[in-house]
Structure formats: C-alpha cells, structure tokens
Amino acid sequence: MDPTSLPAPTSTQLATLPATPLERLQLTPELSGEAGTNRAEAGGAQIAAQNDVAAITAWLARYADSQATLQTYRRDVERLLLWAVQQRGKPLSSLTHEDLLLYQRFLADPQPAARWVMPPGKKLARSHPGWRPFAGPLSPASARQAMVILNALFAWLTEAGYLAGNPLSLARRRRSQTPPRVTRYLSHAMWDAVKEAIEAMPGTGAEASARERLHAARCRWLCTLLYLGGLRAAEVLDTTMGAFFCRRDALGVERWWLEVVGKGRKTRLVPATDELVAELARYRRAHELPAMPQFGEERPLVLPVIGRDKALSRGALHLILKEVFAMAAERMRARGPQWEAQAAVLASASAHWLRHTAGSHMTDQQVDLRFVRDNFGHASIATTSAYLHSEDDARHAATQERHQIGWGRKA
C-alpha cells in the first residue's frame, strides 16, 4: 500500500514516532497550521500559503540562488517544525514565545535522543529510516545562530500577512558589542601539523597506488585552495578550473587571478600567487592534465578520484578535510601529553576554519587589512577602473610576498 494513502498520524501518535523529514511527514489539519492560533486574519496575506509547510517553502524559495544558505535555513526551520508537531503537539503557527524558550533549551540537549539524534559517526540520507535531524547537541553559538534564522522566518511570515505576530520579537535584546575575535582558526603549530600530515600520506610515497596518489594530491590541493585563496567551501565547489586567468599589470608583469562568485552572488578576484599557480599545475599533472587550464574550462576546482568531471558534494569535501584534521591531530598527540589540548582543537576543525586561519595568518604577517578584506570578499570590487587595477596589483604583490603555504618547511 502507498504510505501516502494512509491517514496522517495524530499528535499523540506522532509523539511516539522518530523524527521524520518534511518530505515524508504527514500532518492532520490540526497540526498543519491551517487554523494556527497565531495566523493572521484572512484577506491580508501576501503569499498564497494555506498551511505552515507551504509558508516555510515560500520563505525558503527566496534563497534558491544560494544552495549553502538554503540548506542551512531548511535544516533549522525543519528542526523547529518537527519539534513543534512531534514534541509539543501543535503547529508552528501556534507556537508562543514560551514555546520558543523551551525550544532554545531543547537545542542544547535534543531529547529523547533516539528520536532526534543520529548515531555517532553516522551521516545517513534523508530517505534512510535511521535519519535524524540532529548530529548531537548544538553549541551555544550554533543555537544562537539557529534562533537568528528562526527570527528571520517569523518576521518575514508576519510581514507577509501569514502570521499575526512574531513570537521571537519579545526576545531579550543584547546590547551592541564589539564583534568577538575569531577563535575557530588553526595556530601556526596546528597548521604545520596539517601540512606535515598531508606530506606523510601514503599517496606521497613511491609504493603508493594510483588511487592513494590522487587522494593525497587532492588533500594537498584542497588545503592549498582554502588557505592561500581564503575561499569558502561553497566557493570551492561552485568554481571551475576555467576561472583562473592571467593578465599583465602596468609594468608588464603577468599575474594570475581566480574569479570567484561568493556570498550574495558577488564576484571577486582572488590573487593566484606563484605558489597557488604551481600547486594548481602540480595537481593537474597528477591527473595527467595540461599544467594550466584553458579559458572557460568546465572541470571543477577539486576533482574526484573517480569521475573527473563531476564536482564534489559538500559532504564529501568536509569528510576529506575531517580525515586530514584527524590525521594531523594524531600526529600531535604522538608528540606527548602536552599536545593533547591542541590536538583536540585540531580534531574539531572544519573547512571554514581554514578560511579563518588564512585571514588570521595574513594579518599576522601584516598584510594590509584592505587587501585581506578584498581577498575575502567582504566588499565589492570593480575590474574596469585603472585605479582599482593598480590597487589590485599592489594587493597581489603583498599577498604573494607575505602569505605563503610553504610546503616542506615550517612557519
């Protein structure tokens, strides 16, 4: 029998079932939000949604041009909706301010774990019966970010005339403070351990198999891109080899650049230093490709070991880096117990840490903060102005001179 033809479970039945992805969730009219207690009066809505899932879908559609943002927002909204109907037994459009205070505490310890949390070390597909919406408790920072996203959802649904009010608008406002320093980055000692771990991978030896060699080359190239380019993981996945190009400056010096489309669909030019270009050539030769890409070449920046023309998934990229960080952490632990704390930090690192590491190390080397800002895409750039071209060239020279990966040597 088709499961979609079965009657939707009641709120009492839902309370005993494991959390279910939205696309498989069946809701009764009382849980759908069709008659939510926070629904706005009929006639004033600016969206056609008649229930909570349709309203959420309308909000998420605004982020369709940024897959990374869309996935993050969908995850946090899905968690709240599932908690509302399965744990609180009420639709999202009936949640009160008090409900959301309870939810914020729930994020720090999703219980019962069997319903909400995936088994340790597992990353299951949404279609798998063992899928759960959480990998574990959220850190305070992650929980705050989730509530920021939910506040944006409720504010938009209120403005769109779907909800009568935003239950999160009553949250206590924090006084504006100076943004905290970035803490999720690798010290120079940790970064050295990462490079040493990659250089010691099985694929770097003479007896390595072809697969091991390509995997080691990929790890080295991926870390090079994230560190020398300061790229976001999504930018690595969305950029092709053909985005590299060369142009001459006013003195006739050839300089290589990488054109990246970043957050908000803003284009920026990242200096492709001599080191980065050499590593690009090294990586391409490992795949038996010409040293430099052709203009408009569609190959992804990071190639799979099998199937060279398909970009990696976001999950695969993160798994590669987690493997590298785990190997580096083990090497640090082998030095003695005094390294345990740093090894634990290194083992928890992720792709975005390398972007923060790049920025931190560039400022350590006294690269002009304006150049760091532009390299990282914190401001728009223009490529047609002669003045800005001159500033670009100075930025390129400063980045190349002071920001180096230094494979084979310690900082």
UniProtKB/TrEMBL annotation:
Residues 181-401 form the Tyr recombinase domain. Residues 50-158 form the Core-binding (CB) domain. It comes from the Bacteria. Keywords: DNA integration, DNA recombination, DNA-binding, Plasmid. Gene3D superfamilies: 1.10.150.130, Intergrase catalytic core. The keyword DNA-binding applies. Belongs to the 'phage' integrase family. This is Integrase.
